[in-house]
UniProtKB/TrEMBL annotation:
One of its GO terms (cellular component) is cytosol. Pfam families: Thioredoxin. The keyword Iron does not apply. NCBIfam families: thioredoxin (TIGR01068). GO terms for biological process: cell redox homeostasis. The record marks 23 as: Deprotonates C-terminal active site Cys. PANTHER family: GEO12009P1. It comes from Leptospira perolatii. Residues 1-104 form the Thioredoxin domain. This is Thioredoxin.
Length: 104
């Protein structure tokens, strides 16, 4: 199951409702490709409390710049449109799950 892609034009709308984890990634990023299947699993397991969406930083540089993305992958956690936390790097599934559950 592929995660939905968001972009510069719909970013604000896409993060405005509920809890949303945004995976900031790029095609050339090896660790991004490693974390993607983990996020797809978590998306299915946590769909009741969380939406997970992907932002390609190469294709959406305005948003990436506004968010101050400097390392990939960066996972940004939003609640009702407000950034509440972020983690950087291709972390194991349990660590990403704990990161999310701290904010439920």
């Amino acid at each position: 199951m592929a995660l939905p892609e968001i972009n510069d034009s719909n970013f604000t709308t896409e993060i405005s409702n509920g809890m949303v984890l945004v995976d900031c990634w790029a095609e050339w990023c090896g660790p991004c490709r490693m974390v993607s299947p983990v996020l797809e699993e978590l998306s299915g397991e946590m769909k009741e409390v969380l939406q997970i969406k992907k932002l390609n930083v190469d294709d959406n540089q305005d948003t990436a710049q506004k968010l101050g993305i400097q390392s990939l992958p960066t996972l940004l956690l939003f609640k009702e449109g407000q950034l509440v936390d972020k983690i950087i790097g291709a972390l194991p599934k349990a660590q990403i799950r704990n990161f999310i559950e701290r904010h439920k």
